[in-house]
Amino acid sequence: MSYSLYLIDETTRREHSHLTIEDECHYLMNYTARAGYNYSPENSMISNIKKKLDKKGTTEWQYKLQDMYKLGQIFRKILSGIVDFNETTIVPIPPSKTKSDPLYDNRLNRILNVACHGKDADIRDLIMVNESVDATHTLEEQGRPRYTIDEIKANCSFDPLYVKNVKPVIMLFDDVLTAGSHFKAYKEVIEAGFPDRDIFGVFIARRIQLNVFDL
After folding, report:
1. Please, what is the Cα angle at 22 between 32 and 6, to 5 degrees?
2. Is residue 125 helix, strand or coil?
3. What residues contact 199, with CB distance under 8 A and at least 6 apart?
4. Buried b (16+ CB within 10 A) or exposed e, 80-92
5. What is the 3 state secondary structure string of 146-198?
6. What is the mean pLDDT of residues 49-70?
7. What is the pLDDT of residue 12?
8. Considering the chain, what percentage of its residues have pLDDT values greater than 90?
9. What is the DSSP secondary structure assignment for residue 134, as one 8-state letter?
10. Contact 162, 126 (CB under 8 A)
11. Which of 79, 147, 87 is nearest to 113 (CA)?
């Protein structure tokens, strides 16, 4: 199966409530919410890469590793179509856990390392979360409200190890675009700290709602 990057435009933007016309966001595939991992190859892939670290050592873990590598190979073929590596700093959106947390998951970094191997890419964890929190999909599963943009901004800061020589363009990279709150929060934080940078987003998938007629 071949993949291409698609741009969030006026036909899809309304499905991601926090995005505006000023936000440039690209995505690779659709992830159908609440349809289950058997619904599509894309759903299976997203479900696999999101497996938590407590699955390490189980038979499920190999599927996470396989699909992280597969996604890295897909992005390796298409990322250079929108990224000038000489001018771009690539920033994985941080997971919900701090780096000292046993459940910290660096899946985005691992995908990017495969995608950008040999390209002299500037991949850095420019932003970090200050305290571990529950993942957004966990909140949704429990019927709890999602984090607001202000709450996300309040729980993040720049990693002082990575603030020097940030390139003119910044690409934020994340797995699934839902409402767009994390993208907007980190974009606003970066704009405040680096006001002269151009910022855009790349996502593995965007979430779409299940159509009952497709069941």
Report:
1. 40
2. coil
3. 169, 170, 171, 172, 187, 190, 191
4. eeebebeebbbbb
5. CCCHHHHHHCEEECHHHCCCCCCEEEEEEEEECCCHHHHHHHHHHHHHCCCCE
6. 95
7. 96
8. 86
9. -
10. yes
11. 79
90-100 pLDDT, tens digit per residue, is: 999 999 999 99
Backbone torsion region of residue 143, taken as left when φ is above 0, otherwise alpha when ψ lies between -120 and 50, otherwise beta: left
**Region 150-157: what's the mean pLDDT?**
97
The angle at the Cα of 105, spanning 104 to 106, to the nearest 5 degrees, equals: 120
Average pLDDT over residues 184-208: 97
Say how many residues make up the chain: 215
- pTM surpassing 0.90? yes
Structure tokens belonging to residue 153: 């901004």
Residue 140: burial class (beta carbons within 10 Å; 0-12, 13-18, 19+): middle
pLDDT of residue 146: 85
Read off the pLDDT of each residue in 80-99 and give the average, rounded to a whole number.
96
Question: Helices in 50-180 by DSSP H: which ranges?
Answer: 61-78, 107-115, 136-141, 149-154
Using CA atoms, how far apart are residues 207 and 155, in angstroms rounded to an integer?
24
